Structures are given as structure tokens and as C-alpha cells.
């Protein structure tokens, strides 16, 4: 008997903290415009936890039955987390975003970096096309672990140890994903971020697994670079990059640096993927909660909107869907609307304009709807 085909998706909407609460309505506005235009059925479930406000009220970031509450959701659309005045950053991050990534085995963090027409670039003599690459960040292990401890706390003999974890399964699966991605692109080039001259156990292992994986992809040109010179080349020679694969920490740093080189981190989207679709994937802007600008209504909503487009693209490729074409077209149209508004539309202050978050969201939604 043929498997039942899906016609709609259920999205958990998690605004979180700070400007997450301001950019989320714009993301939803654009998703609704796309849904209307392409007759997509999206159901939303708004979540008021996974935030520092919730922590203040309850002493934890999420309720004990968070999994049950999210049962039936196909994806999570996430704003931002963190409010250090209320909750230490490592508590809020580990209690929400990192928990989702690990518990839902979202082992790929895909972060596109692109210089758009009309966006002022801080790098000299760069034009659109010069910066257009994908960072693939390992998302469930590496340097982001809670393994370690403190001894002799508060004394002169204080010792702090923080462990990293590089499993063969975890390393191979992110490398495989990155090679597959590179193999499907025009340039077929993969940069492997490493630091095996300094980090003498885990990084030589990472390199070894990358070399082994490369044997299966003879059509992909591979380039191994130490993270220090790699960051310099993001600034000095961004045209070198097509797909970049990196450990959790290196990928986090590269995917903030990349968008900063392309004008503003306010544009950078991210997809936290379980490619096998055993669990819901999570889509969020790269930026955080930005307490310094929260409340002014000036946050750039493009990263949130573009993340929503990535979500439609991922959902549209679900084999359980009868016809994914309208979902993929909706992704393409949102991206086109973003391009048009960035080239010649309202701009938030991070791009030198004086537009409000809502002005940009409305302009993009209008283009998507018509
Ligand atoms: N938009 C998600 C967010 O709030 N990110 C803040 C952050 O600190 N992220 C760290 C990470 O992505 O690992």
C-alpha cells in the first residue's frame, strides 16, 4: 500500500528573546504571503517557552513535557535566545537551542553567505558574486560539549577542563553531507577547516576522516586550511570559497565572520537539519537576541525571512509530500523578493537606512504576494 502523502506542515513558532520577538512577525508575514500565493498549507503552533522570560518565571528554559508539546510539528521556526541580564548565556543556550539541536539530532547547520546587490560591502572592491558560499557546520558535538569540570574552585589552584568530542559517526556524516553538497554545485569545491597543527588529537582525526571521505568524491576539489589563515582569507580572498565544512566552534565563528564580510549579520539565515527527517529541523537567523537594539523596532528581519524560505525549501523536498514544486517555488520567490528589496527598498540601520523592521518585512511580503 502506498504511504499517505502529506499536503501540509505544522510549524512550531518560537520567538525566544529580544529581537527574536521583533523579527518573527515579519518572518511569519512573508510565509503567509507565500502560502497565499502558492496555496501552501502551513499550521502554526506558537511556543512561549525557550526564552529567558520563561526561565525567570519557572527556573528552566523549557517545560518538562517539551517533547510532547512539539509532537506533530514538522519544523521549528526559531527567533533568538539569550538575555544575559536575566540568565547566564550558557544556561539559556544549552537549555534551548543546543538542546533542540542535540535531542533532534540536527547534525547539519547550513549557513549560506552571500553579498547582495545594493548592500554596502566592508571589503574593498567586492561585487555581488564575489561572496557566495555555504558554511556547513557540525552541529551536535565537537567543541560544544558539557563535558569537563572545575577543581579547587575559587582558589589559586583552580583548574578548569573542557572536553571536545569527535565521534567517527558525527565526523563522517557532516563531511559526507558537505561533499554531497559540493558535488551538486557548479564549482564543486570544498574547503575543510582545520587546526591540526595546534589541536593535536581531534583535528588530525578530522583531517584523516576528510581525506578518507574525499576518496569517494573524486569530482570535488578539496582544500584543507587552518582556521587562522582561513578566517584571513574570508576577508582577503572570499572568491576562493564554494562550500566550507567546519567543526561546531569553527563553523560558528566562520558563519558570523562570513556575513559580516558580506555587509551585515542581519542577513544571515541558518538551517539546523536532520537530513534523514527522523526529527523536526530548526530554522533560525544566525544572529542572537541583540539586547542593545531590542525595543527600537530596527532589527533587520531579512535573516529571519530567509530562514523561513530555507524552511519551505527543506519541507518541499520531503519525499512524503505529494508535490513539492510549489514549496520550492515559494523559496525562490522569497529569495528574489529579498534581492529586490535589498537592491532598492527600505533598509534598516545596519545597512545604513532608517527603515523599521516592519517596513522591510512588509516590502518583501508585498513582492511575494503580487
Ligand atoms: N538565532 C539564534 C540565536 O539566538 N543564536 C545565538 C547564539 O548564541 N547562537 C550560538 C550558536 O548558534 O551556536
From TrEMBL:
UniProt keyword list: Manganese, Metal-binding, NAD, Oxidoreductase
Q: Which superkingdom, per the lineage?
A: Bacteria
Catalytic reaction annotation: (R)-malate + NAD(+) = pyruvate + CO2 + NADH
The cross-references to SMART domains, in alphabetical order and at most eight, read: Iso_dh
Q: Where is the Isopropylmalate dehydrogenase-like domain?
A: 10-364
EC number(s) per entry: 1.1.1.83
InterPro entries assigned to the protein according to its UniProt record, in alphabetical order: ICDH/IPMDH, IsoCit/isopropylmalate_DH_CS, IsoPropMal-DH-like_dom, TTC_DH
Instruction: Identify which cofactors the protein needs according to its UniProt entry.
Output: Mn(2+); Mg(2+)
Q: Which family does it belong to?
A: Belongs to the isocitrate and isopropylmalate dehydrogenases family.
The molecule here is called D-malate dehydrogenase (decarboxylating)
